[in-house]
């Protein structure tokens, strides 16, 4: 047995964890973990700690439920925030499921005919101690950027004692996520093992806002699809899930005070997110330390309102020259100087915002791609003159933001409101950039907090080619039908993006983080998983670990690639249909798929 073990050690696995921790050392001792391992959850520092609970073991679990499925862990209290206790409880259950039921045998990461570790007189993990160093604040699951400390330390001794310490329950979650990534399934033994003991990790995020934006209006996704995306985000230590829930093409969000919005505006009356669905999604995110941020994009991208309230929308569905009035068909925008629109928005916000308040501190009011020409057909304005429109847009946004604030939320807007419309925005408003690094520099230059997500790097939809159909008379002009943001953004391109690129040192603190974007014109439930994963994980590592390594150099693809392949295997084991990024050959044979390697 001894000789088998040492043979194995000579070829032990690479670093394993994604995103890469700030400080990480490990050995090469194999230790095992069994399902009856006990978790101890203590509050307070060592020596002066209350044991909160030691009842976590498999008799309490339902380990065979898949991610995205409905299970007992998703019991949602009515309109209440998850507490820090809920968060830790949920994370412990996920940890069991991930290590014992959603794990994989790592043959791809070893040469042919590798020696899998054998059990023998192995060491088993005796306990996993979760040490919450401070009592969690009330709003632990809905902080503003930076309000919750997500740092953690993880120690795993050769003797099999594991300790995860953090200042918040969300930090404990991040530490447990890392912990699960140390372990592999075995092909014949009913326990999991790590070959990296002892392990010592001290970790914290670089950016406070680390998100994925999913457009669920161009195509409809089920609650299960969205939950699966949230789970994958959480597993990549992302802490924001931006739900772009309405757009010009459909309005799938049920608003009980305005029932026709989704009855008529959804693609089909049953392709909606009911009040219960929406609550379940928000809870599911929050309990994993992920804030679901809802966006109702306005005043552009609203033509689906015309199916129920035609008088509120100007320039609706102009054909065939829709492109004079909008970026996409159907054209249409909320009227800009209309008391009926104000009344409508009052009703919408009064219904919706209290239902998001338990789960987030933010509300996104959109504001991208507003087409001035549409207001020539707006009978409350009849003009495309910026001098006429700008003050009306200022009033429109001020009114909306005042209402958002009065309900206790912080507004987020797209960059155009600041940079193209020259609006004066409140200091609290977070400005989300998508067009360029120069835009980010301008936003922070104006003193605003910024979210990055440059479309040339972090748009996951790019490179699929056009979705518009071209008449034979013009088709040749568009050949070979590339989309505006081609080519497809390979994970390496996503990984090469530095959110601080072009931002002067003195303004870098205003870059809260960023989001990868999944616009869904050509993505539906069939290809969702592979369009998002594992590429969004590349953005997740940049946001958690930073674009530069500890020596200030650009992070190396050669270091990242096998770890990302491993994350991909873990996502697949969780039930997420993530794409491969390489052939097994490259992983099995180590350095043979590299170019220009200098060591
Ligand atoms: C598992 O938890 C149950 C309920 O608290 C307890 O009775 C049982 O002894 C525990 N088993 C182990 C192996 O800790
Ligand atoms: C883990 O917690 C248990 C129960 O409080 C305690 O007996 C044990 O010594 C702790 N182990 C470590 C490594 O802190
Ligand atoms: C969260 O709680 C902290 C401490 O109690 C408080 O300072 C902060 O304003 C709260 N934030 C939100 C968004 O409620
Ligand atoms: C917890 O907070 C303290 C400061 O109060 C800090 O030194 C430490 O790094 C934080 N994180 C962890 C995991 O202890
Ligand atoms: C815009 O034009 C229409 C039609 O000519 C007219 O009825 C309306 O009063 C005009 N609106 C404004 C604000 O001038
Ligand atoms: C806005 O509407 C009011 C009437 O509701 C009208 O008096 C005013 O001229 C309009 N403003 C513009 C710029 O058209
Ligand atoms: C914003 O300012 C720029 C530069 O001064 C100007 O070109 C643009 O027309 C303004 N936008 C609006 C909507 O007033
Ligand atoms: C690091 O990456 C940036 C892109 O983020 C690139 O512009 C720069 O040239 C790279 N630096 C080196 C030394 O390769």
Automatic annotation (TrEMBL):
GO terms for cellular component: membrane. It catalyses: Hydrolysis of terminal non-reducing N-acetyl-D-hexosamine residues in N-acetyl-beta-D-hexosaminides. Its EC number is 3.2.1.52. One of its GO terms (biological process) is glycosaminoglycan metabolic process. The keyword Hydrolase applies. Residues 207-546 form the Glycoside hydrolase family 20 catalytic domain. Keywords: Glycoprotein, Glycosidase, Hydrolase, Signal. Residues 17-182 form the Beta-hexosaminidase eukaryotic type N-terminal domain. One of its GO terms (molecular function) is beta-N-acetylglucosaminidase activity. Residues 1-16 form the signal peptide. The keyword ATP-binding does not apply. It is an enzyme of class 3 (hydrolase). The active site is at residue 369. Coiled coil: none annotated. Belongs to the glycosyl hydrolase 20 family. This is Beta-hexosaminidase.
